Amino acid sequence: MNKIFVIFIWVNFIFNALVSYHLEKKEISSHLLNGFYNRPDIVNFFNEQKTHLHKEIVVIDPLVLQAAAKTALGYFKSKNKNNIKLVKPRFFEQKLNSNDVRKTLEYIVTLIEQDKKRGTNFRILNPKFLEKNFKFIKWSEDNLSAYKNKVKIPEDLNYGKIPKGQIRLTNYAVFVVEGSNCKTSKCNCPIYSIINKDFENKDRFKFTKQNILAGVLEKPEYCNKVKPLVWISRNDLESALMQGGIYVKMPNGKKRYFNVYMNNGFVYDKKIKDIKKQKRYWYFKEIKNLKDSGSYLNFGGVLFAGDIFNLGLGKIIAIKYKNRKNQKDEIRLGVLLDSGSALTNNLYQLDLFAGVFDNKKKFKDWLWGIPNTVEAYILVKK
């Protein structure tokens, strides 16, 4: 018995030492650590349910949904180990097999292609067709986690917590902002690209966002390791970091798009409400051919960000709600294709990507009809 106890002590010591080492090197991802100690019990929140649809309106562009589904299928066909983990999280397989997810994506791509060629109405827009051909796995709210994370639902809903049978819905977008090729009084924050493997493997973990904005990477020793792709304002930088991308209008009128590539390894701290105080910084890359890039920028209105590390990328999501603007019952279909630090170990929330907007007013106008809490389902081909 004493020998067993000694072995346990040594195993525990080695495990903690390894975790501490990786933390010190900032090479272990935050979602992985959270997965060890704070993983939600997925089985409790997803159950197949008979759904009776009637006069709901399906409000999506089928061709955009098809393009997003094709992008998701690319992850299933990939031999990259990280991509395999994203589409096949071991904690969700017991509830929904990843092969069924792949078949559902393939079915949707084929279905929309057939209707496009025939020039007929898209069957994916018919709620009765959805009810007949798909299983609906109901997503129940994880109010305990929402309470622990002090999630606030807007007061106009008259709820102190997420309503029963619903989840929280947030939204994000990419905005067109002004930028410069060099540092100016207004555009004084850099979007950096990594151009050196040694920096990518080691140095990028050394500096916080605050270090970078203070000019540490402008020193001569880093001039051949990173380069500023563009300069923008501080508020626009925070938007780019939060949204995962930014459209920049240059002084010559040309628009360039930049997408996040690698971060500095610092964990997003949910307790820090002022985003300017977050230490995480993302290095970017420029996307020059958006149409063929498979970028999420192409999938406005049909792309969801969520807890892909627990749920698995590529799930077809249906959200159901009453439009606040026209008072009609609507269904919006989309693909779970994106993630975010605030969405890790988070089974009470989805984040809908709205698209690209010239300003925040147009973004708010687009969102006005969609409420802050919705019914949510994962769709699986029968």
DSSP E strands, number? 14
Per CATH, the architecture of the largest domain is Beta Barrel
Q: In CATH, what is the class of the largest domain?
A: Mainly Beta
As a percent range, the share of helical residues equals 25-40%
Low-confidence stretches: 1-37, 155-160
Oligomeric status? single chain
Strand content: 15-25%
Q: Whole-number radius of gyration?
A: 22 Å
Could you say which overall geometry the principal axes of the C-alpha atoms support?
globular
Instruction: Compute the number of structural domains.
Output: 3
Mean pLDDT over all positions? 83
The largest β sheet comes out as:
6 strands, mixed, barrel
Through-space gap between termini: 53 Å
Placed side by side, the strands forming the largest sheet appear as 4-13-10-12-11-14
Per CATH, what is the topology of the largest domain? Barwin-like endoglucanases
Number of helices: 13
Which labels suit this protein?
two-stranded antiparallel sheet, 3 domains, six-stranded mixed barrel, Ribosomal Protein L25, Chain P, Barwin-like endoglucanases, 382 residues, 14 strands, 33% helix, alpha+beta, disordered N terminus, 25% strand
